[in-house]
Every structure is written in structure tokens, then in C-alpha cells.
Amino acid sequence: MASYIMLLNYTQKGIEHVKDSPNRLEAAKKLAKKLDAEIKKFYLTLGGYDAVVLLEAPNDEAVSKFALAVGTQGNVRTTTLRAYSESEFRDLIADLP
Description:
Helices cover 41% and strands 32% of the residues. It is of the alpha+beta class. Strands 2-3-1-4 form a four-stranded antiparallel beta sheet. The chain is elongated and about 50 Å long. The model has no long low-confidence stretch (mean pLDDT 97).
């Protein structure tokens, strides 16, 4: 499974209904499972982003479907980053010419 970091910002609609966020998170966890992915961690954050999700998915297509499905609900905007573990990083560097 590949790792992803998803950065979230509430939309106006999302912040107006912020008390529904825990239920939306549970729905997102169920959606991830349908896509053979898993939300490993969720953090509410301070600063430039309102929340951070650590997600594992089988491929980029699955995480793209997840981000699009979450985004269509209109509560958050997402930025998704492919994340490489330290061991993956070391393997990538070792294979450099």
C-alpha cells in the first residue's frame, strides 16, 4: 500500500456545519474502505490547513477517487501528497545513477 498525506481546508459550507465533522470523518473512513484504502490518522491542525489525514491506498487512482468523492460533498478542499517512508526514500536514493 502506498502512503499519502491529505491536507484539508474547510469550505464556507464545511465550517458552517463543523459540528457534523465527526460524522463526516466516519463516512470518509467507510468510503476509504470501499476503495481498499484506509485512513490511518486524522489530525485537526492549526496554521495553513485545518486538518491532515494520513491515508494508505493501493494506488494513485484509488486515492484520487477518494479525494474527488470527498470534495464533491463541498465541505473541504484537499491537497494530496504521495508520501514515501524512510525505507522507500533510502531505496530510491540507493537506485540513483
